[in-house]
Amino acid sequence: MPRPLGELEDAVMTRVWQWNRPVTVREVLEDLQQERSIAYTTVMTVMDNLHQKGWVRREAEGRAYRYTAVSTRAAYSAALMNEAWSTSDNPAAALVAFFGMMSAEQREALRDAVRVVQYDDESATEAPAEPRTEPPAEPRTEPPAEPRTEPPAEVSAPPEAEGESAGPPTPPER
């Protein structure tokens, strides 16, 4: 379960997430030094701790390491929110209180996110079959009807997406 990052850990991870590429201790150090005075060994220790905690992976490059984030900042934030929500003794009340703290922009982002999740859910699963309200029909005792000899009614295919064509259209049979 994720624990919130400390202030310096967050500052380091912010750079790793923003740069979205393998980074060295030296690169992070130089960027951090624009905001505060900090030693190379401090940044190296923080990055090693982040590696030990599983937040970054590292690859040796000469005598140094290049560090890469294991997950995104969004995934980290989501894990923190899920952890806080799941430990509540009243999750619904916690959500209501959380939503009450949100700005209008954050609530709009939430509505957008719910729409995305609903769309993903709908496209990932087919609609469940309607429950049957009538008892099943009794088994037939008469012989089945003769096979149909007339052609079935023509069913038109849905229009293809613009720019996507499976080939030239075929004329309808008469």
Description:
It is a single chain. With 174 residues, the protein is mainly alpha-helical. It contains 6 helices and 2 strands. It has helices spanning 7-19, 25-32, 40-53, 73-86, 91-101, 104-124, and strands at 56-61, 64-69. The protein has a two-stranded antiparallel sheet with strand order 1-2. A hairpin with a 2-residue loop joins β1 and β2 (64-69). The longest helix is centred in the middle third of the chain and has 21 residues, at 104-124. The protein starts with 6 loop residues before the first helix and ends in a 50-residue tail after the last helix.
Compose a concise summary of this entry.
This protein is mainly alpha-helical. The chain has helices at 7-19, 25-32, 40-53, 73-86, 91-101, 104-124; strands at 56-61, 64-69.
Break the fold down into its secondary structure elements and pairings.
Blueprint: H1 7-19, H2 25-32, H3 40-53, E1 56-61, E2 64-69, H4 73-86, H5 91-101, H6 104-124
Antiparallel strand pairs: 1-2
What are the secondary-structure elements, in order, as H or E? HHHEEHHH
Rg from Cα = 29 Å
Helix content: 40-55%
Number of DSSP strand runs: 2
Tally of DSSP helical segments? 6
Q: How would you state the average pLDDT, rounded?
A: 79
Q: What is the first-to-last residue Cα distance?
A: 66 Å
Query: Uncertain runs with pLDDT below 50, 5 residues or more?
Result: 135-174
Overall outline: elongated
Strand content: 5-15%
